[in-house]
Amino acid sequence: MLIKNTIIKKIGGKPGKTVAVFCGVHGNEKAGVYAVTNVLKNVKIKKGVVYFVYANPEAIKRNIRMIKKNLNRCFLKDNKGKTPEDKRARKLMKILDKCDGLLDLHASNVEKATPFVICEKQSYALAKIFDVGIVSSGWDRIEPGATDGYMNKKKGALSLGIECGYAGESEKNMQLAKKSIFQFLQFFGLMDKRVDFNKREQKNINVTKAIKKNTDNFYFTKKWKDFDLLKKGEIIAYDSRKKHIAGKNECIIFANASKKKGQEAFIIGKVK
Ligand SMILES: [Zn+2]
Q: How many CB atoms lie within 10 A of CB 20?
């Protein structure tokens, strides 16, 4: 998918908040990319300023996660890296510096993935409005350099990421992404009402650990889905002879045995 303008600035007629909607931070996660493209065709911004951003255009074009580096680890103030992603992050941080809010649209590489929100406590009121059943926090600490983590350092800013479901079902999941964009813009009062806010209860999960794969002989004991609840003492995976064992009230997220040695194989969360 070729994108001509990668940063589209829409200005409302009246003063208001400045926000950003990011998609394609990971180029193969298309739900957000399709949604932004669709929303841009008919959105009317009434107040404030909205930046619609195709975050990693080259990766989107090639339908790959990244060119050289995970863009979602490059949003660090002192970033001096030389990869295309580092350069792009420096450009996009300048936009985020102007913003009061960020919505970053992602998708999961796990089949049958449950949509969920990634945010910290200060953005819980915003997280509530979206049609997802799970709100997870704690990511800043275990995975620094993400877009929302960068925004969280800014006082008063609200920011979150939404995982819109399995990346292999982007056509279907773009509906959730699209509705989330409208809900987000409505929350900040930037457009006329179009959609309702979520009314259902959400479950809170705090992520605590990112577990890396240490050997090539790594395998899971089950085909874990995101947020599968683990029984205390249950074996999650083997990494050669090392066993990964579940603790109390834990769940598993982003289980992926096909990662390279040294990369993250799964994440552990605590159910609150
Ligand atoms: Zn992603």
A: 26
Phi and psi at residue 72, in whole multiples of 5°? Answer: -80, 15
For the chain, domains (ranges, CATH) are: 7-187 (3.40.630.10), 204-271 (2.40.50.630)
Q: Cα(233) to centroid of ligand 1, in Å?
A: 30
Rounded to the nearest angstrom, the distance between the alpha carbon of 107 and the centre of ligand 1 is 5
Query: Residue 1 pLDDT more than 80?
Result: no
Q: Give distance in angstroms: CA of 167 to centre of ligand 1.
A: 9
The reported pLDDT for the residue numbered 85 is: 98
Residues 111-132 have a mean pLDDT of 94
CA dist., res. 211 & res. 220, Å (int): 12
Contacts of 167 (CB under 8 A, 6+ apart): 28, 29, 30, 31, 107, 108, 109
Find the 13 Cα to ligand 1 centroid distance in Å. Answer: 33
Q: How many Å separate Cα 92 from the centre of its chain?
A: 16
How far is the C-alpha of 236 from the C-alpha of 152, rounded, in Å? 32
Task: Find the 25 Cα to ligand 1 centroid distance in Å.
Answer: 6
- Compute the distance from residue 15 Cα to the ligand 1 centre, in Å: 32
Q: Give me ligand 1 centre to Cα 29, in Å.
A: 6
- Report DSSP state, residue 40: H
Q: How far apart are CA 33 and CA 35, in angstroms?
A: 5
